[in-house]
């Protein structure tokens, strides 16, 4: 039973209760009864006042009709009452009562026949009666009430707002006409509340629904306990609260409705035969469901189903309300299906809804609603099973629903929304664009008809967004994805945070953002997509039927981000989510193929990274099954075939199995052939086919295969719109294919076209930086190979170097940046080599500066003083400083996700990642803003060669050594020089540097001098480690085949001596003091970074010669690291000294105790400002305070390097550890010298040779101007001697200045002096060389 039917039935009950007070006659035939009442005609003629007799006769017949339902009686009654009115004088006092009686009779007949003419006549009669009844008359109450009921009846038929307005006016007068304690007031308020509710349903006026609720509540308050109408009042209140909740979504209204319905049910439960009992059950069901939809509480869903099943049980066959009850029961089964995904629930839903429709008469007002609901259930079963007959039937019945509904009907937007959704489902397997266009038009119409604050608007926006997203996938039109994201975002924004539908809408928002990311490459989109989908999963119960959908989609988004960033954690998260989704996907599920194909992509991606054959085998197995499960006409089959083809190609590239290649090409061709023109995925499919065809050509040399590759790649590029994120990949692919054809046919146009496409890919403003970087490097190399004199080589490598910095941007953590940089190690040297071949030493220098030590450079930029900008624009400077500080913090402190974390932890980390990305984006925007200011054009841009030359210190030379496979060169920089000096090194090679590095490393490791904390070292006894600082020494024997001597000799003959000769530096006399030797700052690259240039020489008993005899050596990671210190001679403020001889978990180093005490005694004797703290006497926090108070620090302790995340490299204390990240965060304004008397503090990492990932470079980045460090383990015996000699020299060199300060300006000379002293105490054996060589000086 619908709301209208129920309200009118209540009216009839109340009418009988209130106004049917006349005496009911005993049953007898109507004719006999009338005959007994009518006198003879003669008597009538003789009597005056015949109309009074007729009135009595008409009333008697009306009462008889009420008792028997015999229409003859009411027809006769109306005829007699009409005759009586004709005979009644206009001024007779009984006329108004007779008119009232006639109106009531017409009303009674209308309730039986539904003839609208009767209710109109009733209104006419009752209006006259009311007009004739004076105010205050006892009968005015009943007449106004009946008139209001009649207007309500006619409004039901006419939908004329005037009728419902007249009903409300009459009922308000009735209410106003009685006193507060009148027994009829609750009934009158009930009628008024129903009328307000009816008008609200017609107009949506919030004032009407508020007035309705107020009227019902007042009626309930005035009703005495046990009142017969109290259940009806409670029911009506609940109904009004539900209506208001659907408009406002105030949860208090929903809860209040449930309370009202439950109270009404308790009153009527004792009599289940009461026809009202089923109504209350149904309404209680509705209220439970509204709350379930909002909160997802299973108790509410269970309560709703229990109530509705009971209502269906007690409603007899043939009852007019049974279709209504069955329809709602079907909706409940649908809800349970949505919640748990059990197919039997949706099948039950379809069955009972079909029965409801069969029981609904043609033309019934509820038929459209029931047809719509059946369509929804059929659509949901189709989504589960993929049975096309279900979705075809769904569209058919939903079209009927729309066709049967007027444009003004409030249900039309509902029917349109569901019809559009079914059309969308039909499109997905068929790919019919006309159906999709109809779906979008239908859904847009539904949204347009929905008021802004309507509770259903979010769902309709959500569905429209889904349709637009599907069309974007099909056509690739940007405006569709923009509108899809907008619709989905608006749907989420309008959905209450506790609404049950929020997870679905978040999931869909994530889908549209992920799709836009694939089109534009904007990392913000994929970050927001994953965040939304994480929230969807987090808000969904583990047993929810839609959870596998959310999991699969978030897996796809992780996969998309992996393709862009290469972050292995993303592919791990993708596989975990997709496997979880698959484990909850039964055989026969419509989405099984989708999920199998998706996880296949993830396995294939992991295979490409880890090369585990099991992954690619699992990928192919899953994707074959996806193809087998998909019908030949399904719109998604091309995608599954394409994915399978790519996986087969990957396995071929690893195994060389030609059968895999043939099957790959077959699948990829099939995918292309099945994809219609204009499909958004067609360019990608063609590009993949082109790549596979090229692979086949490479093994077959068949020109036809090459032609297929070219045609496919050309067509792919032609179909890809400008601005598409995949455009650079397709341009690069075509360039590769054309170059293959060039090598085969040697036709110059192919080479030119290849260069054009590679250049276009490299210089594109869109697409992943790593794709553009690949294209730029390929472009540069081919230019260098085929056009070695072309100036475009410089343009190409310049592009590549710029793109290299983008691949490891500030939006990533420091750890991730270093991981990405491993993939491009050596690029700066290659570019520099090409520039040097072209005679451009200046450009070579700039590229080495720009492309090396990228992360340290980024950290330096974030800490750059802003004094000049502060003067020009203080507000802008403050914003730059704030963003730089937060970026610095995010890059070094942000925790990365891992599989063991909870979902809530991952959500929090993803939020941090998004905030980090937004900061990086704002940083770029701020840089652009600053650079637009006159005078600030070069703000934080890479330093030019001329700028570097202007800042070279006057007391030495800088020598940058470029080591590349093609050539090796030195670039020397002098103060006052206009151009760098290019020094070719033809005798030194990349191969030599690599061989010497590996040989020296093996020698050190075999003798435990580069042992990075192995178990053997950690478990050694104190006696075994006494002579080495934390590392066990070799236990006897020689050091091998004279490795050290050979390495140092080659470094001298092939590298150092030729450079010294070109620099004009001659060997010093024996008695020349160290401070008079020239300074050289070495800036090595590649494998040379791990070799001791400062010790290059020939070490023999006679005729020894080494670099130490010519110059004082220091190292710098980049030229900029030195030049930006020049002129910054701030005053220093003493030295802090600490030793940590017995760190828990590390070998003891007792020599550190005497080392620091000796330095302390020397400092106090010299009157220097000094502080000392040993072992547990100093905490990490206190050490940091000392570092702020004192300009220099001497750390005699263990240290560990973290090459993967250098900022987590640390010095070990008795109480915790001091990380480089912590040091960098401090404001070390007085930082001057750091003496790191620990092992391997400048060792570095082979795969990141250009990034200087060691503690020495980190201390420079932290602000220290000079650092003494070690390349490998140092002896606990020699370390105190070196330190004593070092400080003795420093203080003797600065004594002339007086005062108690400590200045490390002579530290390089001091170390040179100390090492020469140590050499005098040792011989020239390899063991002796290894004792002093590890000490190195960094900085100024």
Q: What's the count of strands?
A: 16
**Radius of gyration, taken over Cα atoms and rounded to an integer in Å:** 45 Å
Shape: elongated
Name the helicity range. 55-70%
Strand residue percentage: 5-15%
Task: Please give the count of helices.
Answer: 57
Average pLDDT = 86
Structural class: mainly alpha
Give the low-confidence spans.
Answer: 1-48, 1010-1040
Kindly report how far apart the N and C termini lie.
Answer: 91 Å
The strand order across the widest sheet is: 9-8-10-14-15-16
Biggest beta-sheet profile: 6 strands, mixed
Explain this structure to me?
The radius of gyration is 45 Å and the shape is elongated. A six-stranded mixed β-sheet has the order 9-8-10-14-15-16, with helices on both faces. Strands 3-2-1-4-7 form a five-stranded mixed β-sheet, sandwiched between helices. It is mostly helical and 1340 residues long.
Helix-strand layout with pairing:
Blueprint: H1 3-19, H2 30-37, H3 41-46, H4 50-68, H5 71-87, H6 95-113, H7 116-132, H8 140-158, H9 161-176, H10 185-203, H11 206-222, H12 230-248, H13 251-268, H14 275-295, H15 298-314, H16 322-340, H17 343-358, H18 367-385, H19 388-403, H20 412-430, H21 433-448, H22 457-475, H23 478-494, H24 502-520, H25 523-538, H26 547-565, H27 568-583, H28 592-610, H29 613-629, H30 637-655, H31 658-674, H32 682-700, H33 703-719, H34 727-745, H35 748-762, H36 769-786, H37 792-807, H38 814-822, H39 827-837, H40 841-851, H41 854-862, H42 867-872, H43 874-893, H44 903-931, H45 945-950, E1 956-963, E2 968-974, E3 981-984, H46 990-1006, H47 1015-1018, H48 1022-1025, H49 1043-1063, E4 1079-1084, E5 1097-1098, E6 1105-1106, E7 1112-1115, H50 1119-1123, E8 1135-1139, H51 1151-1165, E9 1170-1174, H52 1180-1189, E10 1192-1196, E11 1198-1200, E12 1210-1213, E13 1216-1219, H53 1220-1225, E14 1233-1237, H54 1255-1261, E15 1266-1270, H55 1278-1294, H56 1307-1321, H57 1326-1332, E16 1335-1339
Parallel strand pairs: 1-4, 4-7, 8-9, 8-10, 10-14, 14-15
Antiparallel strand pairs: 1-2, 2-3, 5-6, 11-12, 12-13, 15-16
Helix pairs in contact: 1-8, 1-10, 2-4, 4-5, 4-6, 5-6, 6-7, 6-8, 7-8, 8-9, 9-10, 10-11, 10-12, 11-12, 12-13, 12-14, 13-14, 14-15, 15-16, 16-17, 16-18, 17-18, 18-19, 18-20, 19-20, 20-21, 20-22, 21-22, 22-23, 22-24, 23-24, 24-25, 24-26, 25-26, 25-44, 26-27, 26-28, 27-28, 28-29, 28-30, ...
